Structures are given as C-alpha cells and as structure tokens.
Amino acid sequence: MTTLSSTAVFEVDVEHDPTPFVLSLGHILRIGRNDQLSLSRLRNLGRENVVAAVTVADTPRKATITFSPGGATVAHGIADEYTTHLVLAPDDLYRIRLSEPEGTDVDELVYDLSAILNPPLKEWPECAEEFWDSVSDDAGLPEQLVVVSSDGQELVLGHGASTYEIHAHPADLQRLFAGMDSFFDLLFAGKLRVRGTLPQLSAMAGASWKVQYHG
To answer: Which domain of life is it from (predicted)?
Structure first.
C-alpha cells in the first residue's frame, strides 16, 4: 500500500441526511484516497463521469455514486440514469455478485469499481491504534482494549481496570478497525470472539459504527 501525504486531491461527499449505507460507501471511498493506485482509479472514474448504482442483494440498501473530475458524491437510491449497476453480495459486502449492462466493454470499469470498494488497508495493529485513538474517550468503552489475532499476535491499547478482549483472524481485525465491516456484523457472523460485559459490547458496537459511518 502506497500512502499519500494529502487526500485533498479528490473530494468525497455524501447527501444531506444520508443513510448508513451511503455513509459506509463514503467512508470506503475516503480510505481509497490514501492509496496511490486507488486514487488513480478514482480519478479515472471521475474523468469519465461514471455513475455507479449500487444495490446489496436481498436487502433494501441502494445507493448511487456519482464520479466527477473533482471527486465523488454518494446518495441513497438508484439514479434514473447510470453507467453501470452493481449488485453486491449480502454475506460478503462489497464483493460484486453481478453487474449490468454485461459485456467486455464494461469489464474494466467493473474491475476498477470492485477494487475501489475493496481498497488496500493498513496492517491490523495500525488500524486498531487509529480506531482506539478515535473512540477511546467515548462513554461506556473499557479503559483497556486487548486484541489477539488467530496467529498469536497481541496488542494492548489503553490501560486501566476495565478490560475488553477481541479475538479474530487478522483479516477480520483489519476490516473491523478500518471501518470496512461493523463489530456487530462480524460478531453475528461468528468471526469475533469477545470477553467483557454486555454494556461494553454495546459500546464497542457503537464505536465501530462511528468509525464506519463517520470516519
């Protein structure tokens, strides 16, 4: 992952009163601005004024990403006119299940959009440190967060008497702390093992949504 010193070269905006899905897409586009290749793809889509409609299969989640030379805007619903319509898998969000129209002339476009929806992420310990810096002062969170990856790596964030533990695969920790996936969804899918109180669990879920929707 090649990071950039400035992300002001590509603005990402969301509509007024956005839905959670719109906010999460905006967050993902902002992550992509920090990587040179992803930023190049974003700029190319902007130069071509691509309008990408996005639907999560079997759910009401729908949004439209409108690219322009200066950036991108995300709004809820499907625009009347679009360049391509992407259908995402509900059990593996941001993986494109199918797209329309079909044809070799749009394959490269769909490939670029797929890459943008799955940007390169920092290693999970760095993601975790940034996550903790952003949320550690929020009400209800433990004084100390202990994170253990399935390959045996352990990271302790903060210090104090109250502690919360998260155990998971490195890739799931990476996506959790980067705000790609929510704490609640990963926990519900059985990808996280946690140790702590129910109030702490609720606070962790809220902190995760804060990063995913407003990071």
So the answer is: Bacteria
Determine, yes or no, domain membership for 84. Answer: yes
β-strands 84-88, 51-56: how paired? parallel
The tally of CA atoms less than 13 A away on the side-chain side of residue 154 is 5
Alpha helix (H) residue ranges in the chain: 20-32, 36-47, 104-117, 124-135, 170-178, 183-188, 198-214
Amino acid 3: pLDDT: 43
Sign for the pseudo-dihedral over CA of 77, 45, 118, 145: negative
- The residues facing 99 across adjacent strands are 86
What angle is formed at CA 87 by the lines to CA 63 and CA 128, rounded to 5 degrees? Answer: 70
In this structure, are 135 and 73 located in the same domain?
no
In terms of residue numbers, what domain contains 176? 124-214
Beta carbons within 8 Å of 12's beta carbon, 6+ residues apart: 26, 29, 30, 33, 71, 72, 73, 74
Q: How far is CA 178 from the centre of its chain?
A: 7
Q: Binning pLDDT at 50, 70 and 90, where does residue 208 land?
A: very high
pLDDT above 80 (res 191): yes
Tokens of residue 189, six digits: 């899918």
Q: The domain that contains 166 carries what CATH number?
A: 3.30.1050.10
Report the alpha-carbon distance of residue 3 to residue 188 in Å, rounded: 32
100 closest CA partner among 112, 114, 82: 82
Task: Please say whether the beta carbons of 12 and 72 come within 8 A.
Answer: yes
Find where tokens 């956005």 sit: 18
